[in-house]
Design goal:
about 900 residues, alpha+beta, 6-stranded antiparallel β-sheet, 26 helices, 35 strands, about 30% strand
Length: about 900
């Protein structure tokens, strides 16, 4: 387009102000021929109004008038100000302003352009009114209409359709009526003005619309119609509203006015449009006082937010209707309760039209309900606050409704774990127990149940715990007298039941003990002087009477003991005595004359006045025991004589052992030394003259002599350990170990052994023997090493805490423990005792040298110190020797 043609552009602009976003949308710029949509914010739009007009226009718009007209200068896209006539209309939704729609029309100074301007203004007016224009040719039956009509009939873009097509999309119920109206308008006999409201179904969008069409037919000189034209307006919303009100008025007017419940019709923004007498009376107003007023006038402030939220749910289609109990402000200032059911009426195009509210008076019902709620709340608080374990179940399935902390503690549960849940879901361990059946029986019959001592197995912290409870089940009734639940109270009586069972068990044990021990029971009442004897005692005494006086009972006591027994009873009854009676005496059976020795024990019982009212106890026939004691005493005397003889024999044996030790030390070793000397001379002077076999035999003789020497030395050492004249002193094990390791230095270096040693305690013993013990153990550890790993020997020790748990150790003596661990070849655990016996070997001499006396010597040393030694091992992994010796308490 030639830029010079801009001055000829259409000087007209349509615009819309979106109030919520504060933006302006317009269709075409002044001074531009192009029709394109543009958008500006408030400040940019206001900036294009001439400064002389800005403040006036801004103030007028901020007041949001329903309609507005003015003249002002507006800056065009060509940077020229256009003097325009401005007009606009305010649009609202649900009573709230949402947009302002208007136009700018340039004010032309040239008179010749007035007619086109009027046409443009007429076009704008039609658009502002939502009118479409149409023109029907009766001869060709072609309808020409503008874009607005096209949209109202739901056709796609296009301005020419046939009359048949138009009729096809008119609602079937209205089609004949429209055809008749058109026919009468085109009939020269009637020439009716065409003015009709009917429904259409959109050809493309399928939307139902109510249209109001007005038109006029034009006739030629031959009285024939040649043109039929008019306007169409969308009246859907208005028609639906009128239809609703008309329907209410025609069909439900009598119900509306005569209903006992309150009924009101409210606009979508909350203003009363219709109110029936019951509604007005409910809140104490005249109908006229409510019409046109907002519902907030009769709504407490704290409920307005909730009511607006309900309205929003209906607007958004979340609900079709909603029922709530709410309070209303009565004209006299009081609050009345109503049950409000509100729904939103929509048009056939789904547009909100009005609210219908139905209000039922429930003040008395609500007061009763609130009283019940208050009662239930106090009941709940009573359950929660009571110190007795209490729970309320509802329904036959026993849902946990209310439970207090005391019951939760018994269950071992938290409130979150059980609240609102079924009892047997949260406590499945009760399924095989009788409680659910008992609860349901109370629920079904209304008969309470009580068990003063019921056993229950309850899972607490993962452990099934058995407890006893004094519990009861009672039905809970609602306001109508129907059972709706069961209340369970429980008191834990586990301690009392356990105590009673223990007492019962003790009594049974006592009776068993009395029977097993063949005891008799008796009691003496000093206030009545009466004596009670059990059947066993009566058989000993030769009595048959049930009740005896003390003087008669004493007749059965042997004369030599009678006075002593009588005095002992008197002493036990004295206030200053300890109340204990313990005597042995002889009784004579009053029938057979048989004598028995009895041991009687009793204690005194005192009443509240601290008076002795009963001496009760037992008696035992100790005649066999006395006879046994005499026999034992005789045997002890005989055994003592025998022991003395054995001690003498032992002394003689020890003397013989000492003589043997001397002989082994001197007489036996002397011939061996000579044999070894002769072997040495043969080896030095005659070896070259010997045959190979002779040399082998000579070596075997020399080895046998060496073994014999070692054996004699070990036997001598073992015999010397039996010496009773050992000197004991405080022994420092740390120093003793160092001395032994020094003696074994060559073997340690040769074996490349390593040692780990703790700080060791002191012991009370003979240093020489303990050194021999340690040397034998360490020598064994070096000897029986594993060929595939370095030797490591651990030596540890400390104070023993529980010596009484080990054999041969005295409970009143403190001990230390000493442990020698190696990683050698070890042995099978079954040989852990055998290795301490004399001459016991687990390996042949070809594998490991030795006499089999070393560990026997170790045990002998430990026994000399009244200690204990034990060995444990895993074959192939090493051995551990643990020694227990008396500690040196002064170190």
């Amino acid at each position: 387009m030639n830029p010079n043609q801009q001055d000829k552009a259409d000087p007209f602009m349509l615009w819309t102000w979106d109030i919520e976003s504060n933006t302006f949308q317009y269709s075409q710029e002044l001074g531009s021929p192009y029709n394109q949509s543009q958008q500006l914010d408030w400040s940019a739009w206001l900036g294009r109004i001439h400064p002389d007009d800005q403040s006036r226009v801004s103030k007028a718009w901020q007041e949001l008038p329903l309609s507005w007209q003015d003249e002002l200068s507006f800056l065009g896209v060509n940077h020229l100000y256009y003097r325009v006539k401005a007009q606009a209309q305010l649009w609202t939704e649900a009573g709230k302003p949402v947009r302002m729609v208007g136009s700018f029309q340039e004010i032309k100074k040239e008179p010749e352009k007035a007619i086109p301007e009027e046409e443009e203004y007429l076009h704008f007016a039609l658009m502002s009114a939502g009118l479409g224009t149409w023109d029907f040719d009766p001869i060709s039956e072609i309808v020409r209409w503008d874009e607005r009509c096209n949209k109202l009939h739901g056709f796609a873009k296009g301005t020419v359709v046939t009359y048949a097509e138009v009729l096809a999309y008119i609602h079937p119920e209205d089609r004949s009526r429209v055809e008749k109206a058109v026919s009468r308008a085109l009939d020269p006999r009637f020439r009716d003005t065409y003015d009709i409201i009917f429904r259409t179904i959109g050809a493309e969008d399928g939307r139902l619309r109510w249209l109001h069409c007005r038109g006029q037919a034009y006739f030629n000189e031959q009285n024939q119609p040649y043109r039929f034209s008019g306007t169409t307006q969308d009246v859907t919303e208005q028609t639906v509203k009128e239809g609703v009100f008309k329907a209410i008025e025609q069909k439900y007017q009598s119900v509306f006015t005569g209903a006992e419940v309150g009924i009101a019709i409210l606009s979508t923004d909350g203003f009363f449009q219709l109110v029936n007498p019951a509604m007005a009376a409910f809140v104490g107003y005249q109908i006229g006082e409510l019409l046109g007023k907002h519902f907030k006038m009769i709504t407490p402030l704290e409920e307005i937010e909730r009511d607006e939220r309900v309205a929003q749910e209906l607007f958004l289609g979340i609900r079709r209707a909603r029922t709530v109990d709410k309070r209303y402000l009565h004209k006299n200032g009081s609050l009345v309760w109503g049950r409000l059911t509100v729904s939103l009426i929509r048009s056939e195009s789904n547009e909100p039209v009005s609210f219908v509210a139905i209000v039922q008076k429930i003040t008395e019902e609500k007061e009763i309900q609130l009283a019940l709620q208050d009662s239930e709340r106090r009941f709940r608080n009573l359950v929660i606050d009571t110190p007795t374990a209490t729970v309320v179940f509802t329904g036959r399935s026993m849902k946990i409704e209310v439970v207090n902390d005391a019951m939760l503690q018994i269950w071992g549960k938290t409130l979150k774990e059980v609240q609102g849940k079924i009892l047997h879901d949260v406590m499945p361990e009760l399924i095989d127990q009788p409680f659910l059946e008992l609860l349901q029986n109370v629920y079904d019959t209304g008969i309470p149940y009580r068990n003063p001592e019921g056993k229950a197995n309850i899972m607490v912290d993962g452990v099934l715990k058995t407890s006893w409870f004094n519990f009861s089940y009672n039905p809970v009734y609602d306001a109508d007298g129907r059972i709706y639940g069961v209340i369970n109270t429980a008191t834990d009586v586990t301690f009392q039941v356990a105590a009673r069972l223990q007492i019962k068990e003790a009594e049974e044990n006592l009776r068993s003990a009395v029977d097993i021990a063949q005891l008799g029971t008796w009691s003496y009442n000093p206030l009545t002087d009466q004596v009670y004897y059990s059947d066993r005692i009566k058989s000993w005494f030769g009595f048959s009477e049930e009740d005896l006086e003390i003087k008669d009972a004493l007749c059965a006591v042997h004369l030599k003991d009678r006075e002593r027994v009588k005095n002992a009873i008197a002493r036990a009854l004295l206030p200053e005595s300890d109340g204990i009676y313990d005597e042995e005496y002889t009784v004579v059976n009053q029938v057979t004359g048989e004598e028995r020795i009895l041991h009687a024990r009793a204690h005194v019982l005192y009443n509240e006045q601290c008076e002795a009212y009963l001496l009760t106890g037992t008696a035992q026939d100790i005649t066999p025991l006395k006879q046994l004691a005499e026999e034992l005493e005789r045997q002890v005397k005989e055994r003592t004589l025998a022991l003395n003889r054995m001690n003498l024999d032992l002394q003689q044996t020890n003397a013989s052992l000492e003589q043997f030790a001397y002989a082994a030390s001197h007489d036996l070793q002397e011939p061996l030394r000579k044999i070894q000397s002769f072997i040495s001379l043969i080896e030095v002077h005659e070896k070259n003259h010997l045959t190979d076999r002779g040399k082998v035999l000579l070596e075997r003789i020399q080895a046998s002599c060496q073994r014999m020497t070692t054996l004699i030395r070990d036997l001598l050492s073992f015999s010397q350990l039996s010496n009773d004249q050992l000197q004991f002193s405080s022994v420092n094990l740390n120093q003793l170990i160092k001395d032994v390791l020094l003696d074994l230095e060559l073997s340690i270096q040769e074996k490349k052994a390593s040692f780990i040693m703790d700080d060791l305690p002191f012991v009370r013993g003979n240093a020489q023997q303990i050194a021999q013990l340690l040397q034998n153990l360490l020598t064994n550890a070096l000897k029986f090493s594993h060929p595939d790993r370095p030797i490591q020997i651990n030596i540890s020790g400390g104070k023993l805490e529980t010596p009484a748990n080990l054999p041969l150790l005295q409970a009143d003596t403190s001990y230390i423990w000493l442990k020698v661990e190696d990683n050698g070849i070890g042995f099978e655990e079954e040989y852990s005792e055998k290795i301490f016996q004399m001459f016991q070997r687990l390996h042949s001499r070809d594998q490991y040298a030795g006499t089999g006396i070393g560990l026997a010597l170790c045990r002998k040393v430990v026994e000399n110190h009244r200690g204990y030694i034990e060995a444990h091992s895993v074959l192939g992994e090493g051995a551990t020797f643990t020694i227990y010796l008396p500690s040196d308490s002064q170190s």
